[in-house]
Design brief:
325 residues, alpha/beta, Rossmann fold, 7-stranded parallel β-sheet, two-stranded parallel ribbon, 15 strands
């Protein structure tokens, strides 16, 4: 199978390439020489270009697309989220359909249905939150809606929804922890008590492989997790311990942190300051909210189950970090 991947130089995309390269002809979009070298290192053939360059000619002869690329930032201009997450996804969708691609696997997120008000055992029937104040959540919801709407007899689409993706080469959870510890700004929110579902990257990649095999009816979304909901303290603390990072014990009330984050972002917008504030609305909301999901649909329709448990994932994360030191 010839598979075209966007976002292949990133955390998730790189793991997808590594998993597919042995058995498939993998092409990966690369917007720079550095990205091209990275995807080639993972086992893909680099295709020069950015999301705005993807067209039917670029996808000629491709059997399946795995769309991973997204603007995943805590803070940024509204238009950046919309252009990458919605317009970029639509552009790749249109190109894939025009080129006769048969399968489109979209890496979505639990953010598509995130309300920020505490959610437990959410399933895929929960409605999109298209009016969510957080632009990442809102634009990922709209992107997924378009992907599933594009499904048809000759163009099969699937959306996979991971939660707090972690593992080797993570570019969000661990780097953020290390930065906050170095700055002395880390604090638990509500004692780290909020319960969350998480997704080791290997468990997500396994779902991608099953989706590419044509499992399930298509036109559907699927939550993919580690199969064991944990508190934020257990999740963050486990990752930190695995890599030898000492976290302070101080804690702040969630309501206070949210209020401060809203105020800071308003101030940043008022004065037009660049860069994110010390605490963002997105970080404050995610860290202070319960968000657990059910994976029954993925298990029943894709035949999916976690391929790595938390203890093994943490042990491998620690070993990877020590080997790189």
């Amino acid at each position: 199978m010839k598979v075209f991947i966007t976002g292949g130089s990133g955390f998730i995309g790189g793991h997808v390439i590594e998993a597919l390269a042995a058995d498939h002809d993998v092409l990966a979009l690369a917007r720079s020489d550095r990205s091209a070298a990275t995807v080639r290192g993972y086992g893909a053939k680099a295709v020069a270009g950015a999301l705005e360059d993807v067209d039917a000619a670029m996808l000629a002869g491709v059997d399946a697309v795995v769309h991973v690329a997204a603007y995943v930032e805590e803070h940024g201009p509204e238009e950046a989220f919309w252009e990458a997450n919605v317009i970029g996804t639509q552009r790749v969708l249109d190109a894939a359909k025009a080129a006769g691609v048969r399968s489109f696997v979209h890496i979505s997120s639990n953010a598509t249905v995130f309300t920020g008000r505490g959610q437990v055992d959410v399933d895929e029937d929960a409605p999109y939150v298209l009016d969510q104040v957080l632009p990442y959540c809102r634009t990922k919801a709209e992107a997924e809606r378009r992907v599933l709407e594009a499904h048809g007899p000759s163009f099969r689409t699937v959306a996979l929804r991971p939660c707090f993706v972690w593992g080797p080469r993570d570019t969000s959870v661990l780097p953020a922890l290390e930065r906050m510890v170095a700055e002395g700004s880390f604090a638990w929110i509500d004692g780290g008590r909020p319960r969350v579902s998480t997704t080791h990257v290997d468990n997500l990649v396994h779902a991608v492989q099953l989706a590419l095999e044509g499992r399930g009816p298509g036109g559907r979304s699927y939550f993919v997790t580690d199969g064991d909901d944990v508190t934020m303290r257990e999740f963050i603390g486990g990752v930190a311990e695995a890599v030898g990072l000492d976290l302070p014990g101080r804690s702040l009330p969630g309501g206070l942190v949210r209020s401060v984050a809203w105020g800071l972002e308003s101030t940043w917008a008022l004065f037009g300051w660049s860069g994110p504030p010390p605490i963002t609305r997105m970080a404050a909301t995610l860290m202070s909210s319960d968000m657990t999901v059910k994976t029954d649909r993925a298990r029943e329709e894709l035949g999916w189950a976690p391929v790595i448990d938390r203890a093994t994932g943490l042990a491998r994360l620690g070993a990877t970090r020590r080997a790189a030191a």
